[in-house]
Amino acid sequence: MGREPDLPGQTVVVIGGSSGIGLETARRARAEGADVILTGRNPERLQHAAKELDARRTAAFDATDSDSLQRFFQDLEEPVDHVMVTAGGQYYARLADMDFARARPAIDEHPMLALQVTRYAAGKMRPGGTLLFMAGTGARRPGVSLSIAAIFSAAMPALVANLALEVAPVRVNLIAAGFVDTPLSASLLGDELDKRRDQLRATLPIRRVVEPADVAALAVHIMTNTALTGATYDVDGGEQLVPAS
Question: How confident is the model at residue 125 (pLDDT cuts 50, 70, 90)?
């Protein structure tokens, strides 16, 4: 017997929903009965995703542009239930090679995006819905080239916990992912991608690589479980349990 969908009649906004984890979460939400609203920087890719999912609405803009972000939420005519943010990149560099002009905005990008989305979105959301942000687990261990990523990894859980108190009863949560096999990972690793996949398959306790669908399943669970707020949820296949080489 088939079960009832988990998100019937709800609306899920995905900021960065045209590819990777964002798109897979939108697929999962749609399969659970939700309407989806997608944003992304690439109009062509966004329209392709919207057509696949029969999205209610799309908006093409850079989420780090505060004016565009604010205007997007102001223009929403009806309340939404959940907002997931997967937009934003990461900057890795050794201190000796670091471009401070690139490092400065990289430090600001994710915390500021979380602050702005929360401010602009909370008033458009139904009570009990969740604002869901993304972080990483890899930089929790000290390592060469991880200085900027470490700041982000440490800051986001504390920020989310504080925001959850400020905008209650809207919930605020964080997913911290390890390596996820996405187009972004492929672009960062280039020719090293297959080597990284093989290494993870050999060393992770789950003996496979984490896929966008794994993160999407967790995201939808957080949306549906209204007891969850102010917390960080790891999805890394047990990578943090593996001794550092």
Answer: very high
pLDDT, tens digit, 9 for 90 and up, residues 23-44: 999 999 999 999 999 999 999 9
pTM, two decimals, is 0.93
Q: What confidence tens digit (pLDDT) does each residue in 128-170 have?
A: 999 999 998 877 888 888 888 888 889 999 999 999 999 999 9
- Select from 189, 183, 161 the least CA-distant residue to 174: 161
What does the alpha-carbon distance between residue 119 and residue 100 come to, in Å, rounded to a whole number? 28
DSSP-derived 3-state class of residue 46: helix
Domains of the chain listed by start with CATH number: 11-234 (3.40.50.720)
Please choose, from the candidates 207, 112, 221, 127, the residue with its C-alpha nearest in 3D space to the C-alpha of residue 167.
127
- Tell which residue, 180, 102, 85, 199, has the closest CA to residue 138: 180
